[in-house]
Amino acid sequence: MKNTLTILFIACLTSLMYSQKYTFGKISIQDIEEQESKIETEAPAEIIYRDVYIEVDISGKMEIQVTERLKIYNKDLAENYLTYQIPLHKQVNKQEDISGFKASTYNLIDGKIVETKIKSSQTFTEEKHKYLNFYKFTFPDVRNGSILEYKYTLHSPFIFEIPEQYFNYKIPLREINYQVRIPQAFYYVPDLRGENIHKLDIKTESQQSPNGYPISIYNLNLKEVKSYQEEPFVLNYNNIRTSVRYELVKIQYEGKTPKSFATTWEEIGKTLLKNDNFNLYISTRHFQNILQTILEGKQTNEEKAKAILTYIQENYVWNEYNSIMSNQNINKTVKEKTGNSADLNLLLVAMLREAGIDANPVVLSTVSNGMLNYSFPSLQKLNYVIAGYYDNQQLQLLDATSKYSSLNLIPKRALNHRGIYIKKDNVHIVNLSNKIKSTSAYMLKYEIKDDFEFAGTLAKRNTHYLSMTDNEAYNNNQSEFQSNLKKNYNLSMDKLEIASGKNSFRYSFNFSSVSGAERIGEKIIFNPLIFLQDKEQIFKSETRSYPIELGSAFKQTKNVTITLPKGYKVDALPKSHKFILEENLGSYTYIIKDLGNQIELKTELEINQYFLSADYYSILKEFWQHMINTNSQYISIIKE
Fold first, then answer.
1. Are the CB atoms for 312 and 400 separated by under 8 Å?
2. Which of 14, 208, 339, 406 could form a disulfide with 333 if both were Cys (CB 3.0 to 4.6 A apart)?
3. Of 195, 204, 243, 200, residue with least CA distance to 223
């Protein structure tokens, strides 16, 4: 959502007049003795206040002062709030830095407030990659009831974008105060989003700076904010949170010619096509010898595109940097066989073009970077590029950064609703989607032992988008993947085997001594799905205003074969069911059969869209509840 506001700014530093209720380092007995949040009684922690003061000065520099105080109610459930990392961006000749850092933990010990300061030796800067560092610190001596407080000033030479500020968190917030001061010679456009924009207390004013130039001051305040609750099928919850960011669109000093920056997607496209780090890649033509080999026998555009994509995937490595600009010339990329997302995907565009396919770059904002505001064209918000071309008027998408992607199957990081197709004289918005339906197939076989525990095997195979996601997670950290797998099933696994391949991902294991059967008189009852049973409604909110993002259409099947203990027969089976979502959006089938000493069950969940608007939320929630109710049916067996 965008709210058109007029803003401009200043150059002198003043204190936050709207936050005099709190003074850094002054902790009250009342706050430290509190046992629970008044906003949400079960919250493990709470933000008491957060003050953010931002000033852009006339010389083109920015300072961001941040002060925050938190209350810890349950340390074990508040681990995410004990360690912090502050991003520090950098380029070749300039970078952000921090000054004035202070942080302390406050505890009530023997009736007195005891402060434990974070020493400078307990903070450190870690390089994430060549464009980003993190300033990190961890609060010491944190207990239930502790108060944590920190402050710092960030100095930045990058003023084209004022960093995004959020106004709701995973824990409740008593008060947040946000102020921006900008010289009126700098024209920034605000981008406000989220469900609670209407609750923000927004005030604007104009002043003269001490140096005599006019500034605009923009204040936002919000109080008593509940934590946000995550729902399933949301790729990045930050897209929903209430937030504000600003982007510089023009500089106009008095008496001088104004300098404007791109303000339409068409202008952004023209800017990119004039940039050598973008256009020279896609204009390169020297792959004839390679193409002769890899395109031998390939006739259609689809065959050629798949062959070229496979060649890059097998011979090049993505260095995990996101960018819309190449980081090196194409000869270096070809020689070293590695590069950022632009190096690889602009190379892909160039090779597709030399193969006779009218391919072009598609620029976008990754899922982690947040969704584009399409009515707010922003070059600064773009951080990723993939390849695209039209075949029979249908858009085809490719991404060479993933070893497991394929034609029209792009990784999760690029599935951020829409991107911008960059073609000379034809820049336009396109949908980013995976057109291939994924499958997830479970094969569960088990027997009921004499002690009425279950023992057997489970095998699972995912394909397409689901397998790509698993493959990337597994090959990124195999031990962590296996640990999470065991945690998800919550049972002892024997002979765990994992097979990772480009178009599928499989695993299987044996299990034994799994409980779940219950004796009632002479009957033994159990759920045939045992640990594969979906027991809980995942859609918990009453309403939803954000789309349901599935990643791809999918079909999930569960084939279950149960061997009964000797001397037992079926007393009662669950009822078979089938129900269908309206407009052919999906269906669920539950079919069970008595085969004598065995029982066979097959369930099939199918969703035919990769993306559902929020209008379908209540329908999908009801559908999911029907599925849960069906899956909760029990089998009853008795002695023959």
1. yes
2. 339
3. 200
Q: What letter does residue 533 receive in the DSSP assignment?
A: -
Is the distance from CB of 533 to CB of 632 less than 8 angstroms?
yes
> Which residue type is seen at 275?
N
> How far is residue 363's CA from residue 270's CA, in Å, rounded to a whole number?
13
Contacts of 162 (CB under 8 A, 6+ apart): 54, 56, 62, 180, 188, 245, 246, 247
Neighbours of 478 (CB within 10 A): 12
Pairing of strands 97-109, 147-156: antiparallel
Residue segments in the chain with a per-residue pLDDT below the cut of 50:
1-20
**pLDDT at res. 513:** 87
Using a 10 angstrom Cβ sphere, with 0-12 exposed, 13-18 middle and 19 or more buried, the burial of residue 292 is exposed
Sequential DSSP letters for 283-296: T----HHHHHHHTT
SS3 (DSSP) at 57: coil
CA–CA dist 140, 107 (Å, integer): 11
Give residue 541's pLDDT.
86
- Give the strand order in the sheet containing 132-138: 83-89, 132-138, 124-129
Give the predicted TM-score (pTM) of the model: 0.84
Compute the distance between CA of residue 171 and CA of residue 37 in angstroms, rounded to an integer.
10
Tally of CA atoms within 13 A in the half-sphere of 57 that contains its CB:
14
Which among 113, 28, 19 has a CA at the least distance from the CA of 66?
A: 19
In the structure encoding, which two tokens stand for residue 494, read together?
Answer: 């024997």
3-state secondary structure of 271: helix
User: Residues near 600 by Cβ (< 8 Å), separated by ≥ 6?
Assistant: 559, 560, 561, 562, 592, 593
pLDDT in tens, 574-600: 999 999 998 889 999 999 999 999 999
Which tokens is 541 given? 């909110």
How many angstroms separate the CA atoms of 263 and 270, rounded? 11
Edge-to-edge strand list for the sheet holding 586-594: 494-500, 504-514, 454-463, 438-448, 554-563, 598-607, 586-594, 577-580
Q: Scanning the structure block, which residue is given the tokens 């009921």?
A: 448
The label of the residue with tokens 């399933």 reads: 232
φ, ψ for residue 67 (rounded to 5)?
Answer: -135, 135
Please, where are the H alpha helices in 224-381? Answer: 265-273, 276-282, 288-294, 301-315, 330-336, 341-354
Asked if residue 401 lies in contact with residue 318, where contact means CB atoms within 8 angstroms, the answer is yes
Nearest-Å Rg of the Cα atoms of the chain is 29
DSSP state of 476: H
341, two tokens:
């997302």
Predicted local distance difference test score (pLDDT) of residue 153:
98
Residues 6+ apart with CB under 8 A from 487: none
Question: How many whole angstroms separate alpha carbon 110 and alpha carbon 390?
Answer: 73
pLDDT confidence of residue 357: 96
